[in-house]
Structure to design on (665 residues):
């Protein structure tokens, strides 16, 4: 159990809103989450659940129509949620928190050499110039497992393959010397064979540079591979958070059950794969009660009326569901979910 | 690169050959009045003798050959109507520098004002202060939508009432250059501002700009080093053409201010049926248009490393 002092990044009651054509969309609805120093946290959830927006808010990278409407983001004694100017954010971006983005094919400037783009980060954050900056860029390239760095340094992104480009993107992030690395679906756009290599590289760099990593993903395979802890996000809220084994083998929230049931590995041959019926709620409207209730066949009456608080399952595991209230009727998770424990997670290995 | 340029030059030459052949052939279909000063008073024999002397009785291919030989020797023929007996190159050489000077000044101003305007508009479009973008768009739309004749006239009419300004151009008085240059540049200012804004807005929504922000690059630096640089590439292709097209002059502005430039020379030559002059002008215009495109393509390749010239997989 990590100590209180080991919290590097702490989100408290974070509210994020977007204004679209006069309408207000509540993308993040009062989310609290602590990120521990040196850990590897995975935020999972379906598309549109707000996982990307949530992490981007810690770098001030929300789109122009998005604002932090309430709450705090504590980092090293500073409340990032109160930042207003670019100057303030420039003390955080890259320098403290860096990011690896989803699509390596588009996240590099096609008209600048790879070396230039790494050097830009080196110059900004390591304060090096000229030959020293070049050396640092070459080192960064070598650190992410690229050979023949002198030649590669002078090449343009289109001369790199997808996996190699993602290595370059990681090299840029690492060249900033950050403390926290946010990996926004770092392997989604990559070949399956390359995915594992990239994840291994990030893990290895995390250990070497003592980074705190936050993965955003909807790929539970990635999660099982890299994460110490998991936060499950649904409709702009974190509904369950716990250690990797806890969330996988003892999930408490019906949405987590449904999410795990959707794993193709749990399907029975010949049967259709499981999918969650219905659609997530429209966040332009006020969400009442448990956001997942309308899609949950076993929803309780109270789920439609009042938003559940967090119930502690263990010191490290908590979930936002009325099922954990002592007064709630006993609802068992689906059978295949209970069997996950017995399978010992073989499906994910 | 050199191989590609060589290949493109050869192909350009071929295009030129085809164009001039077509024009040459078409001009042979023109009435023969165009070759004589006082056609009405001439007898049939005089006309036949005259045509004989001009070599127009020869079979077409022979005429063609003679024409090309003349071009190669720098002898482009004499004007028959516009200025009788004067070498067409002398006529053109007397007019082109003036059009070029005016056009280049106007283009320079257009780039100097249009590009910053485009940058300002693009930066304003992606910020909270959209008012600048709105004003810029109104300006661009007005200039693009109104027939240029109208604002050219207005500029001449009101501009010439300012103290010191004059209605007509005279090469020796610098102040008389200002109004026509301003008139000529307006269209290009709007053009460059509009396209640069558009390409910059496109670029600034791309992922690499987000990554640049995420690595902590200040937004002014992103705008300069990444967005502008990349948005400028598709525009750069047009600049050589714009430069070269100034050689042709502007028909309307030049006639408005009585500027003895290239504008309208071709129209006049066609009206007068001055065939040699038409031939020479078409050849020159075709050549400079082709050259403009070629230089534009080469410039693109120099600015964008993804374009590899001359390679098969380049897709050309």
């Amino acid at each position: 159990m990590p100590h209180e002092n080991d919290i590097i990044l702490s989100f408290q009651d974070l509210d994020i809103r977007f204004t679209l054509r006069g309408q207000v969309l509540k993308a993040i609805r009062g989310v609290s989450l602590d990120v521990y120093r040196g850990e590897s946290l995975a935020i999972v959830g379906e598309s549109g659940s707000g996982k990307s927006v949530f992490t981007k808010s810690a770098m001030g990278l929300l789109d122009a129509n998005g604002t932090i409407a309430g709450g705090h983001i504590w980092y090293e004694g500073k409340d990032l949620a109160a930042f207003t100017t670019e100057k303030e954010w420039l003390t955080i971006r890259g320098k403290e928190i860096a990011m690896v983005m989803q699509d390596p094919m588009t996240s590099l400037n096609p008209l600048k050499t790879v070396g230039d783009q790494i050097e830009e980060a080196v110059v900004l954050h390591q304060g090096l110039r000229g030959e020293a900056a070049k050396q640092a860029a070459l080192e960064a390239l070598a650190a992410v497992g690229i050979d023949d760095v002198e030649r590669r340094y002078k090449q343009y992104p289109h001369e790199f393959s997808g996996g190699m480009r993602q290595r370059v993107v990681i090299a840029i992030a690492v060249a900033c010397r950050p403390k926290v690395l946010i990996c926004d679906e770092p392997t989604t756009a990559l070949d399956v064979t390359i995915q594992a290599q990239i994840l291994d590289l990030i893990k290895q760099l995390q250990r070497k540079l003592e980074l705190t990593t936050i993965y955003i993903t909807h790929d539970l395979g990635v999660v099982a591979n890299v994460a110490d802890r998991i936060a499950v996000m649904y409709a702009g809220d974190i509904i369950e958070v716990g250690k990797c084994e806890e969330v996988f083998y003892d999930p408490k929230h019906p949405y987590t059950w449904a999410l795990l049931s959707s794993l193709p590995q749990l399907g029975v041959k010949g049967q259709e794969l499981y999918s969650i019926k219905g659609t997530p709620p429209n966040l332009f409207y006020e969400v009442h009660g448990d956001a997942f209730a309308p899609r949950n066949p076993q929803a309780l009456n109270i789920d439609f009326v009042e938003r559940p608080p967090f119930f502690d399952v263990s010191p490290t595991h908590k979930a936002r569901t009325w099922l954990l209230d002592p007064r709630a009727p006993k609802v068992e998770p689906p059978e295949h979910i209970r069997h996950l424990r017995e399978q010992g997670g073989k499906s994910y290995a | 690169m050199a191989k590609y340029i060589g290949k493109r030059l050869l192909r350009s030459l071929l295009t030129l050959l085809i164009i001039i052949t077509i024009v040459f052939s078409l001009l042979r279909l023109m009435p023969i009045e165009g070759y004589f000063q006082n056609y009405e008073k001439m007898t049939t024999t005089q006309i036949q003798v005259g045509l004989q002397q001009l070599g127009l009785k020869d079979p077409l291919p022979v005429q063609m050959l003679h024409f090309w030989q003349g071009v190669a020797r720098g002898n482009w023929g004499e004007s028959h109507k516009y200025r009788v007996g004067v070498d067409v190159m002398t006529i053109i050489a007397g007019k082109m520098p003036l059009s070029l000077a005016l056009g280049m000044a106007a283009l320079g101003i257009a780039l100097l004002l249009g590009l910053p305007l485009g940058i300002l508009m693009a930066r304003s479009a992606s910020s909270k202060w959209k008012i600048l973008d709105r004003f810029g768009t109104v300006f661009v739309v007005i200039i693009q939508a109104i027939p240029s004749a109208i604002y050219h006239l207005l500029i001449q009419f009101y501009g010439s009432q300012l103290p010191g300004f004059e209605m007509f151009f005279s090469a020796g008085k610098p102040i008389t250059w200002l109004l026509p240059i301003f008139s000529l540049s307006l269209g290009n200012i709007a053009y460059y501002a509009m396209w640069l804004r558009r390409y910059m807005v496109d670029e600034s929504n791309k992922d690499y700009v987000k990554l640049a922000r995420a690595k902590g690059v200040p937004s002014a630096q992103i705008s300069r080093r990444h967005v502008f640089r990349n948005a400028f590439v598709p525009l750069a292709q047009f600049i050589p053409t714009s430069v070269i097209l100034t050689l042709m002059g502007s028909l309307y502005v030049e006639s408005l201010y009585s500027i003895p430039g290239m504008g309208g020379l071709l129209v006049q030559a066609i009206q007068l049926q001055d065939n040699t002059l038409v031939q020479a002008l078409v050849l020159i215009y075709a050549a400079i248009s082709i050259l403009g495109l070629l230089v534009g393509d080469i410039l693109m390749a120099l600015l964008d490393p993804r374009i590899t010239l001359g390679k098969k997989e380049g897709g050309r």
About this structure: Chain A touches chain B through 30 residues (CB under 8 Å). Confidence is low (pLDDT under 50) at residues 345-349 of chain A. Residues 192-209 of chain A form the longest helix (18 residues). Residues 11 and 33 of chain A are 5 Å apart (CA to CA).
